[in-house]
Amino acid sequence: MCFSYSVNLKADRLQSRLDLPEVVLPQSGYFFSGFSYPLLPVIVANGNLHMTTMHWGLIPGWVKDEKQALEMRKLTLNARGETMHTKPMFRHAFQRHRCLVPAAGFYEWRDFNKKKYPYYVFPANDDCFLFAGIFDVWTNRESGEEISSYSIITCEANALMSVIHNSKLRMPLILEDSDIQTWLHGTPDECLKLVKPYPDEHMMAHTLSPIASQARADRNTPEVQEKYVYPELEQNLLF
Question: How do residues 31-83 score in pLDDT, each as one tens digit?
């Protein structure tokens, strides 16, 4: 599962890595919660790759009205990779509208002795992760407004994430660069074969200050990503 991540990206590196014509990023992007349904960068293939922005929280194109749209997006921040091809809320987007979601890192919580401890998970080598995503465009029939929105695909946790996200044992589906074209242009069957955990040796993680768990705090600051030591965890770290 993935309900919060960072888009504190390096525009020039991302542009070079994916051969993008232009990269426009938020002024600050250290912590975004999906439950605020933020407008964030997404990479789509329309001929060549290009970056656009969409709201996190997929609203399928068939949704009838605004009330249903607001309820739907609560359920679609993530889509399980194993079942996205069968679920009505995800099936069309998976078949027709796949995208990349760039993230400098993401946040997850570990259960330990009936407490939850925040972690920041980030790439060991690259500047950012590229999550597999799906998107759709919904039109509000009353106002005529079009809303583009997306969902992040999830898969089983790797060894590292099994320690951190030890209650759900899930993680975002992170794509290798060699799998990008398959995800964007491949058949549904080819894409389903990509649903597997990212190698844990390509990831790093550390614990964060309790402020990362405080929804009312301003978490969109560089300090939120700084390492914070919990003595009670020091003898229970497996990475």
Answer: 999 999 999 999 999 888 999 999 999 999 999 999 999 999 999 999 999 99
Question: Rounded distance, CA 188 to CA 98, Å?
Answer: 10
pTM, to two decimals: 0.95
Q: Which CATH number do you get for residue 31?
A: 3.90.1680.10
Q: How far is CA 192 from CA 34, 81, 95, 163, 219, in A?
A: 24, 7, 11, 25, 35
Domain count for the chain, please give it: 1
- Single out the residue of 10, 155, 142, 141 nearest to residue 82, CA to CA: 155
Range of the domain at 199: 4-236
Residue 151 CA to residue 193 CA, distance in Å, equals 19
Angle, CA of 122, 95 and 191, to the nearest 5°: 50
Neighbours of 27 (CB within 10 A): 5
Residue 228 per-residue DSSP state: -
